[in-house]
């Protein structure tokens, strides 16, 4: 690899040390798409932002704006707009879809049972979970 | 000792037992090793102590195939190779690791593959090469380096993807590091500003002498028992093609293989990873310094870090080519708007948090993929000439849609293994990242680091950069119908001419080539010793 102009690939030790960023949930996930003053003039208007207050959806507990945004994109890119079908596809339709996703996600990745949303490679069940809560929130009862 | 060829009388004859063309990593290693054994060695170096524009211009040429680019921008041929003492190690980033065993194997799913020997043949020379490039040693085992660094490798262990170790020299510029040794060795004479323009031959079977010129007009003649071409993966075939005393096709080119199979590593910023890990658990991705404990560089430091690569098992079973990834941590400002629309890293982080894990560290993924050897990917001579009257190079670099697809398949495996192992999630945006923007992020400033929207990446046509790793243009093979040099790196058709450097690689693999080419140079030193004695 060349030192220049891609010297960035080299080990960053000594001096200032490695530049690492901790994007911890505890530190606050702040998506500035929802901050008009930070956006460039031609930036597309966000449809959903994670700066919105978390939603409390019956049975699912607290669901953040970022998850709803992700669910919107899953629905838009996969065409998953049938809430009943999504719920019935869950291993346990009566449970928390996120908890179920956690149980089966690794196996799905291992089996290559994934979907791609805006480049993100997600396990099918976790993507389904986001679509379910987005559809619920977008439905008549809202969330 | 170092001698400025511009101070010599025109018409003078220089020479020794061995004459090496090029004072880069291979030439300096070979020269010092042979001189230490008592041979009278001459090295002809095109440049001087430092880079100068006129000499560098001799490496200029045109790119007529796939665009020659770095990860970010077009690059000229004369920017990739450096013509002065130390050669291209003068901008080497210092990454060292050996080729994988699978790189040496014949893979039936590829049109051309396989080395004429296996990794065991190179093993003793990898130990010697480790000292030349100034790393700890040739032991790259994961367990050893986890202990040595006090850091864990990424927690992926599968039959498809695995972590490995890169040792990094800091970096070893061979001209600077070994100049004192050159100065102190009277039977090693390095002529600076000495450009070889022709390898003279009467019958095509023996080199009789070299025609050498300086930019100032001094003409010299170099004579030796053995000649070694060590000028790099582009200049090696150029000089062979330009040496037409006996054959207009060039020296050692009866089978029309000189310059063919030009191979690079396909470099791509593949995307981002969001790691479900405590930063302390992935510190090994950045690595740390270690101290060399033995040998001529004892007490000096170098670095080591972990990266990820497809396993040999997967390369064989999936009938694919190699791929490796570095996970590079960057200074993403907290809450940086990594993208303006669509599913963002923040969104995925919230998903991971909701499912009970703790997303921690953001990394970007720099991939480096092997390309399949293609005889139409080649170095040829154009009609333009340089200041010494030599025809300039036209680089016709070719890689295929299949190469790109195999790389993309590899990135998808990375994404799946991240999820399967609980390491995190991956966003694949091959070629869709502004690397410069990543390097210049400022907390609080809105910067788009995507060159196109993540959902608009063209998976069939994403841009690919070069690693500046020019390989296989005088490929090694047992048969002259398959390669230019034999397993001893001797030209199949020319009895007293050998080739050193990555141009003799039989396949490119994914490992950065310098460490291996230095090992091959040490091996060549042993071979030449046996031949000359």
Keywords for this entry:
A: 143 residues; alpha+beta; two-stranded antiparallel ribbon; two-stranded antiparallel sheet; B: 533 residues; alpha/beta; FAD/NAD(P)-binding domain; 2 domains; nine-stranded antiparallel beta sheet; 13 helices; 24% helix; 23% strand
Describe the structure.
The complex is a heterodimer of chains A (143) and B (533). Chain A is α+β, with helices and mostly antiparallel strands. Chain A has one domain. In chain A, 35% of the residues lie in helices and 10% in strands. In chain A, the strands form two sheets. Chain A has a two-stranded antiparallel sheet. Chain A has a two-stranded antiparallel ribbon with strand order 3-4. The radius of gyration of chain A is 19 Å and the shape is globular. The termini of chain A are far apart. The relative contact order of chain A is 0.13. Mean pLDDT of chain A is 64; it is low at 1-51. Chain B has 533 residues and is of the alpha/beta class. Chain B has two domains: 1-134 and 172-263 and 370-394 and 466-533, FAD/NAD(P)-binding domain (3-Layer(bba) Sandwich); 136-168 and 266-369 and 400-463, no CATH class. Helices cover 24% and strands 23% of the residues of chain B. In chain B, helix 1 runs parallel beside helix 13 (514-532) and helix 5 (119-133) packs across helix 13. The radius of gyration of chain B is 24 Å and the shape is globular. The model of chain B has no long low-confidence stretch (mean pLDDT 93). The chains are: A alpha+beta (143), B alpha/beta (533). At the A-B interface, helix 1, helix 3, strand 3 and strand 4 of A face strand 11, strand 14, helix 10, strand 15 and helix 11 of B. Strand 4 (120-123) of chain A pairs antiparallel with strand 18 of chain B, so a sheet runs across the interface.
């Amino acid at each position: 690899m060349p030192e220049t102009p891609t010297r960035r690939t080299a080990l960053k030790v000594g001096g200032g040390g490695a530049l690492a960023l901790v994007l911890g949930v505890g530190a606050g996930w702040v998506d500035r798409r929802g901050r008009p003053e930070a956006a460039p003039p031609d930036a597309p208007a966000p449809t959903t932002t994670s700066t919105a207050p978390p939603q409390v959806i019956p049975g699912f507990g607290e669901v953040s704006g970022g998850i709803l945004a992700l669910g919107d994109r899953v629905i838009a890119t996969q065409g998953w707009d049938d809430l009943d079908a999504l719920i019935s596809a869950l291993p346990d339709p009566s449970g928390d879809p996120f908890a179920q996703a956690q149980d089966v996600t690794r196996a799905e990745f291992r089996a290559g049972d994934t979907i791609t949303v805006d480049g993100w490679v997600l396990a099918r069940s976790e993507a389904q979970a986001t679509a379910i809560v987005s559809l619920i929130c977008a439905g008549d009862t809202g969330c | 000792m170092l001698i400025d060829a511009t101070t010599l009388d025109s018409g003078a004859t220089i020479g020794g037992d061995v004459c090496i063309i090029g004072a880069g990593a291979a030439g300096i290693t070979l020269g010092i090793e042979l001189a230490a054994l008592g041979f009278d060695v001459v090295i002809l170096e095109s440049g001087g102590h430092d880079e100068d524009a006129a000499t560098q211009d001799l490496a200029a040429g045109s790119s007529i195939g796939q665009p020659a680019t770095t990860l970010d921008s077009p690059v000229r041929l004369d920017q990739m190779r450096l013509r002065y003492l130390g050669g291209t190690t003068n901008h080497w980033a210092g990454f060292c690791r050996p080729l994988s065993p699978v790189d040496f194997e014949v893979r039936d799913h590829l049109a051309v593959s396989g080395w004429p020997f296996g990794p065991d043949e190179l093993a003793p020379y990898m130990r010697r090469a480790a000292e030349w490039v100034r790393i700890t040693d040739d032991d790259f085992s994961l367990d050893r380096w986890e202990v040595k660094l006090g850091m864990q490798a990424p927690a992926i262990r599968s039959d498809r993807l695995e972590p490995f170790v890169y040792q990094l020299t800091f970096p070893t510029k061979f001209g600077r590091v070994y100049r004192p040794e050159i100065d102190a060795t009277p039977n090693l004479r390095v002529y600076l500003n000495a450009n070889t323009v022709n390898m003279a031959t009467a019958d095509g079977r023996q080199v009789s002498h070299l025609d050498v010129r300086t930019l100032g007009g001094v003409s010299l003649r170099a004579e030796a028992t053995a000649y070694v071409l060590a000028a790099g993966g582009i200049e090696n075939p150029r000089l062979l093609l330009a040496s037409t005393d006996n054959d207009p096709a060039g020296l050692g080119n009866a089978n029309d293989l000189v310059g063919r199979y030009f191979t690079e590593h396909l470099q791509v910023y593949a995307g981002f990873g969001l790691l479900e890990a405590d930063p302390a658990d992935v510190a090994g991705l950045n690595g740390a310094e270690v101290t060399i404990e033995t040998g001529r560089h004892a007490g000096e430091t170098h670095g080591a870090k972990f990266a990820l690569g497809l396993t040999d098992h997967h390369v064989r079973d999936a009938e694919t080519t190699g791929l490796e990834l570095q996970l590079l941590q960057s200074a993403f400002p907290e809450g940086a708007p990594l993208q303006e629309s669509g599913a963002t890293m923040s969104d995925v982080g919230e998903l991971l948090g909701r499912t009970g894990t703790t997303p921690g560290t953001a990394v970007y993924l720099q991939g480096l993929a092997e390309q399949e050897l293609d005889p139409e990917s080649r170095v040829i001579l154009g009609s333009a000439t340089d200041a010494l009257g030599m025809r300039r190079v036209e680089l016709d670099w070719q890689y295929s849609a299949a190469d790109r697809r195999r790389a993309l398949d590899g990135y998808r495996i990375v994404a799946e293994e991240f999820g399967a192992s609980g390491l995190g999630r991956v966003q694949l945006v091959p070629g869709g990242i502004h690397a410069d923007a990543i390097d210049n992020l400022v907390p609080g400033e809105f910067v788009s680091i995507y060159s196109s929207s993540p959902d608009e990446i063209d998976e069939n046509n994403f841009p690919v950069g070069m690693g500046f790793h020019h390989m296989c243009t005088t490929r090694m093979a047992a048969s002259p119908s398959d390669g230019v040099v034999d397993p001893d790196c001797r030209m199949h058709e020319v009895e007293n001419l050998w080739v050193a450097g990555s141009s003799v690689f039989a396949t490119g693999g994914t490992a950065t080539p310098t460490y291996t080419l230095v090992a091959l140079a040490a091996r060549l030193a042993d071979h030449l010793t046996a031949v000359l004695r």
